[in-house]
Design a protein that fits this description.
Blueprint (H helix, E strand, L loop, with lengths): L1 H17 L10 H11 L7 H7 L4 H8 L3 H8 L10 H16 L5 H7 L8
Helix pairs in contact: 1-2, 4-5
């Protein structure tokens, strides 16, 4: 992590000295480290744990996971026809749990970037 902080400071200085954004950004040692950290990250939360932690409906959970209520109901089905959620759904629930828990501590510029509608925020 110390190396990442050092690389981040160097990168910020380089970008500041250029005074402009040049896309695409090069993949440096910093980005390679972050890509590897992310690829091994097993961020996930089960639907059952999320449902027990937060007072919400299965419709809410479907909205969070961008899936149908039928799909969410399948996760809670106790018969043989139970369909386990894939890693993408587990990640959505973990991220939403993080946001619900820690929203107030997230810096405003990061929130604005997170909740922008897909435009590149510069």
């Amino acid at each position: 992590m110390e190396r990442l902080e050092q690389l981040a400071q160097e990168l910020a200085q380089q970008r500041e000295s250029k005074g402009e954004h040049v896309y695409p950004y090069p993949i440096t040692e910093r980005e390679q480290i972050l890509i590897r950290l992310y690829s091994y990250c097993e961020l996930g939360m089960t639907p059952q744990l999320f449902y027990n932690k937060w007072d919400l409906t299965r419709e809410d959970m479907a909205l969070i996971c961008s899936c149908s209520v039928h799909t969410v109901n399948g996760w809670f089905n106790t018969s043989r026809r139970c369909y386990p959620p894939n890693a993408g759904y587990l990640r959505h629930l973990a991220i939403m749990d993080f946001l619900l828990e820690d929203f107030e501590t997230i810096p405003k510029p990061l929130l604005e970037r997170l909740f922008s509608k897909g435009e590149l925020v510069i």
